[in-house]
Design a protein that fits this description.
This protein has ten helices and eight strands. By secondary structure, the protein is an alpha/beta fold. Helix 4 packs parallel to helix 5. The longest helix has 23 residues. Bound molecules: adenosine-5'-triphosphate (ATP) and magnesium ion.
Length: 259
Amino acid sequence: MITIAIANQKGGVGKTTIAFNLAQILATKGFQVLAVDNDPQGNLTSSFLEDPALRKSNVLDAYSLKILKPASISKNLYLVGADIGLSTVAERDFQVIFNLKEALDGMKNALTTSPAFDYVIIDGLPSFGHLHLAALAAADYVLIPVKPAPYALAGLKDLLTTVDKAKKYFNPGLSVLGIVINQVDGRSLVMEREMDGTLRKRYGKLVLRTRIRKRVSIEESPAFQKAVAAYAPNSAAAEDFKSLAKEVLRRIKNEQDES
Ligand SMILES: Nc1ncnc2c1ncn2[C@@H]1O[C@H](COP(=O)(O)OP(=O)(O)OP(=O)(O)O)[C@@H](O)[C@H]1O
Ligand SMILES: [Mg+2]
């Protein structure tokens, strides 16, 4: 089981969009995938489930050390959802940050109706704090979306510092899978080129070759509970997410071959 946390404390960079699309592409490739909504906003949950009454599987169970029971979404794809109740985790004792990891590990050993998962994709929230640290404690890899916008790079250094500290103090197996530039629209060419250049100069190979373009279909598809690859199969947007999935899988394979 490989766990990927999608993280950036900056809001609106595309964490949920990437978690939603990546989880579905991996499932269509035949992997058993668990998507975990670790954000009290519950955006990933709403993208998968139109009907709130179906939100029976809640990540809050993990933080209360109950056995997780993922909900089946479609072939090979499961969800542990979230709602605003998750915000109470911020008020609990510090040790709560290890509970998500324990619950995901516990799921492997428990007799559940869900399969053994190949990939767990955790959607993060736009802040630091207990839930962010819990994702870093549970993950093998962190995937960081960034958006070409003023101040986009300012918080990236802080985020990479928290990842380094998580690795040093409580999760030695953690590594940054990459930084993915999202919402490239070609309208603010100067800013986009400058950001791309600065990122690649500063972070080198950490920056993924795939860049995800800004497309209306990406924004629309969650309203129909569909990944863009299913909603607009022949679109540039679908191509971008397929390319992202390919690059993510290649990076994981290379890392695992090396270790
Ligand atoms: N490549 C894209 N093209 C068009 N729209 C996009 C793209 N990526 C994200 N969006 C849109 O931008 C908005 C923010 O994206 P998203 O919710 O994925 O960000 P987030 O990082 O999860 O935000 P939060 O920090 O609030 O959780 C959403 O309306 C989403 O549909
Ligand atoms: Mg989100």
